[in-house]
Design brief:
30% of the residues lie in helices and 24% in strands. With 444 residues, it is of the alpha+beta class.
Amino acid sequence: MSKNIKDAVSIIFTFKDEVFVIKRQNHLRSFPGYLAFVGGKVDKEDYDEADHLLKEYAQYPIHLINALYREVAEETSIKLHEIKKKNISYIGNALSPDFNPVRFNTYFFKVELDERIEFTLDEYEIEKGWWDRPESILKTWSEGEHLIVPPIRYYLRELAQDISSSNELNYIRKTHEEKIPLVESISDLIQYMPLSNTLPPADRTNAFYIRGDLKTLVDPSPKDEAELEKTLNTIDAIDQILITHYHRDHYQFTDEIAKRLNVKVLMTKDTYDLILKHRPHGYFDGIDIKFVKDLDKVTTWKGQEVKVYEVPGHAKGHIALAPTSMNWFIAGDLFQGVGSVVVGGENASMQKYCESLQRVIDLDPKCVIPSHGIALGGVEIIKKNLSHRFKREKQILELFLKFQDLEEVYNKVYFGLDERLRPYAMANIESHLEKLKIEGRVNY
């Protein structure tokens, strides 16, 4: 995965005891649906000289100040040098973790205003924006109402303590060699990220910890003994483990974890049968197994029932989880934040996969969380996936009717693809053709 680091800026407007926050649109590529401050990444043109900026802000790097001016103008229609302000100060930075595909080194600036401004916001990038006290924003996050990354919460907490302070407060992410990385963008739903035996370009599979009446760990799958020990050193006490589906990168070492922590394991009967088919005899011996089905309650979150949702297609027996409010939806491998989903093989069905995507769209959760990648606001990514599948299906149908040959279809659809991924691409083609056969559209 790329370790490219890009500079970014974040502008915290304050007036008296309030800050201005925005909610990013769900269709954006970076942090869709998240609460944030005005800002964005530094562009190439931001490194150009700008005399009117250097006179007033000579103590700050020119590319950061240029980016500040540009982002404020683009997102709020305000010229930063024209507004009445008491002070502008750099208050710290935050570097995104090294396991991210693209890393951002974000520089935070605080702009203290003389008057409260009602900004005209860029509707393409910003769903809404409002003034509020930092502690109020944090309270609603703790109630499960927002997606907020840790650095933003850090600066909100610091501002809640002293909003007038201009002290430099660099966010430092705590790391431990003996532990796996984690993030809690949604309150009481922790995303653990152990290294796993998954398909490239991903190298980690999310494991989720739901704080509820039954503390639940979802899909623990460390890649080896060393990562297993890190996982056990990291996770909080649990009551049960839930497996979303039978693919190895979602359950590896689950037997070991369950035995060492003396907890039960939940899954569908199909998942249980398929795991035993692919694992040595006795894999689950000595473990309390509970089979679950659609709409079964498995735990709680914020006092709400968390239920099972059957979403087959990528794999037979695949399930997802969501609370009553639909504030979040753990989607497993229905979509990927890193890479793409393979739908192929004897236990997969493109027809059921498309139906499962449509089911999530109809449920309309506030955010969806994949097994590889971060939580994403809304169901825009699910809609895009379904639309992509239909477009790919149309392409495969036309090529198959023309050539009647899978190799020709593969060469046209996946031209230039890494040969290591050929079996998975071919499986996708065959799954599409099987769906078309069921629908009576091809004789395959």
